[in-house]
Amino acid sequence: MVPSPLALLLVLGAATTALAEPLRFVDCGSIDGSIQEVNVSPCPTQPCLLHKGTSYSINVTFASKIESQGSKARVYGEMLHVDIPFPIPEPDGCKSGIQCPIQKGHSYSYLNKLPVKSEYPSIKLIVKWELVDDQDQMLFCWKIPVQITS
Description:
Blueprint: H1 5-19, E1 26-27, E2 33-41, E3 48-51, E4 54-64, E5 71-79, E6 82-85, E7 107-116, E8 124-133, E9 138-149
Parallel strand pairs: 3-9
Antiparallel strand pairs: 1-9, 2-4, 4-7, 5-6, 5-8, 8-9
Family: Belongs to the NPC2 family.
GO molecular function, one term: cholesterol binding
Signal peptide: 1-20
């Protein structure tokens, strides 16, 4: 018996969903936007286990409350309430899935990568991800617990 295309789509959809379940996150100050969903893939459970030498896909769906010509991402590792800047390959939100200029009332899917370098220590920390508009106000800010591991 040959599986139907619909059955194959359902199986593939279920497999993809298992890798990119919406995460429980803390909103840490979204002012000019509202977060609808945060996905980190792969991260089937929390805290997310981030393996050294691996890159993770970030997808944030948010609605903008303002108009902005551009946006810029800032990522931090938060330890003992201290934010340590975390470099990402592409900080420009307009090159990360967002159609600029950003329009009020529209929803956007922000897509980026979180590379975990081999030289990072094996520790538990909080990842804090901000996207600011052209006035340096928060379109979104979210936090999730992670554990960097070998």
